[in-house]
Amino acid sequence: MQSNIVLSFNFSELSETAKEYARNNYREYGLNGDWYAPLIDDWKKGLELLGIDASDIFFSGFWSQGDGACFECFYSYRKGWRKDLSYEFGGSLGDILLSAGERLQALQRPLFYRLIATVSQSGRYTHHYSTIFDVDPDGLLSDESAVDVEDELKEILRGLMEEIYSSLEREYNYLSSDSVIDDCLQNNDHQFLESGKIYQ
After folding, report:
1. Which of 13, 40, 59, 146 could form a disulfide linkage to 69, CB 3.0–4.6 angstroms apart?
2. Which of 93, 7, 113 lies closest to 51, judged by CA?
3. Chain centroid to CA 131: how far?
4. Where are the domains of the chain?
5. Of all helices (H) and strands (E), which one includes residue 187?
6. Is 6 within 8 Å of 180 (Cβ atoms)?
7. Residue 111 in contact with residue 153, Cβ under 8 Å?
């Protein structure tokens, strides 16, 4: 008589080949689909404190040409940004936002803080160069100053887009690292077949 008993194993009991299969399967199917949402929310809040009302943040990654991040926004100077930023954010993200805020303030000062701009995403890519800027729609700038101001604003905002992408890439690499996945597979009481497939 043929036995129908199926052997199952804890993650730590699997062979190295089976563990690698389980890890790769988790990377493809098990990683939370909205793993990036808390990070995106932090960025939106930080940008808002700088006067950058980012309606959407887009990204793709992290292994193809054309990958990157960008946002669509309306930008205008926001009074009290520095105090609010220091209250809400610290660490490396706080430092990045503070540096950008100081550059924006320096850009706005000679224009009496009246510069506004909109940014929209264009094309099929989502990196920082797939953006269209409409700077000074009210004609505040003279022809002599317009190019320099627009170039500086583009550099600041596109720099923030690059920082967003870098932070997302770091978070993804952390969440998909062997050590984090191993902890998840070991500590969540998963059972596996000898091959590394999760036992249903």
Report:
1. 59
2. 113
3. 16
4. 1-31+181-200, 36-175
5. helix 178-187
6. no
7. no
Task: pLDDT tens for the chain, 200 residues: list them.
Answer: 445 666 787 888 888 898 888 888 888 777 777 899 999 999 999 999 999 999 889 999 788 888 999 999 999 999 999 999 999 999 999 999 999 999 999 999 998 999 999 999 998 888 998 999 998 867 777 666 777 899 999 999 999 999 999 999 999 999 989 898 888 888 877 788 888 888 76
Return the number of other C-beta atoms located less than 10 Å from residue 49's C-beta.
21
Size of the chain, expressed as the number of residues it contains: 200
Bridge-based pairing of strands 131-135 and 68-76 is: unpaired
- How far is residue 28's CA from residue 40's CA, in Å, rounded to a whole number? 21
Name residue, tokens 């950058």: 52
10, two tokens? 């804890």
Could you tell me the strand order of the sheet in which 52-60 lies? 52-60, 68-76, 116-121, 131-135
Burial 82-96, CB ≥16 within 10 A → b, else e: beebeeebeeebeeb
User: Which segments of 37-177 does DSSP mark as H helices, in order?
Assistant: 37-49, 81-88, 91-108, 143-175
Residue with the two structure tokens 């098990």: 30
pTM: 0.86
DSSP 27: I
